[in-house]
TrEMBL record:
Superkingdom: Eukaryota
Name of the protein in its database record: MADF domain-containing protein
Chain ranges of the MADF domain: 43-134
Annotated coiled-coil segments of the chain: none
Pfam families, per the entry: MADF_DNA_bdg (PF10545)
Length: 160
């Protein structure tokens, strides 16, 4: 009896969170889409941030497709949402974040009173993405020059 009650409540909660989705012309049923609340969206952003393999190019495993897939699976399991739905929502959020950033950056030349201030609810939560495309200092480019090449370079440049 208790299991039946819990199952009924879970189905009701799922029915509230998910809506059937038809194609744009209304001709075909495409599946279920989740209605993302702000709370769920913030949870998704936090989980995404906790997996730098998905967003940080300096992460050693950034190019490892298996690690990325594992990270997406972990996020989807934590949220109890299909992986494709989670990826789609995150892609949408990143796109909106980029648009908000562009608005801030296009206000160059404007006074401080005219600077764009984003009112988008998730903007501050996604600021961690601002560091992902910045160049990082390097110590050594890894190119080794043989002694004969060094001699030729010295000869061309005229140094002893």
């Amino acid at each position: 009896m208790l299991v039946s009650l819990v199952w009924t409540r879970l189905r009701a909660a799922a029915a509230d969170m998910y809506n059937p989705h038809q194609s744009s012309d209304g001709s075909a049923w495409c599946g279920w889409t989740m209605e993302w609340t702000k709370e769920h969206t913030f949870m998704l952003i936090e989980l995404y941030q906790s997996h730098p393999v998905l967003w940080d190019p300096t992460d050693p495993t950034y190019k490892n497709k298996v690690k990325k897939l594992d990270a997406w699976r972990s996020i989807s399991q934590a949220l109890a949402v299909e992986r494709a739905e989670v990826e789609k929502k995150m892609k949408t959020l990143i796109g909106q974040f980029r648009r908000e950033q562009k608005k801030r950056n296009t206000k160059s030349g404007a006074g401080t009173d005219d600077a764009y201030i984003s009112t988008w609810f998730a903007f501050n939560s996604m600021k961690f993405l601002l560091t992902r495309n910045r160049p990082h200092p390097t110590n050594n480019c890894g190119i080794r020059v043989s002694s004969s090449a060094s001699y030729l370079i010295a000869m061309v440049l005229g140094s002893d």
